[in-house]
Amino acid sequence: MDTTKLSSKGQVVLPKSVRDAHAWTPGTEFIIEDTPDGLLLRPRKPLRSTRLDRVIGSLKYEGQPKTQEDMERAIYDELEDRRGRGRY
Question: Nearest CA to 32 among 21, 19, 43?
Answer without folding.
Answer: 43
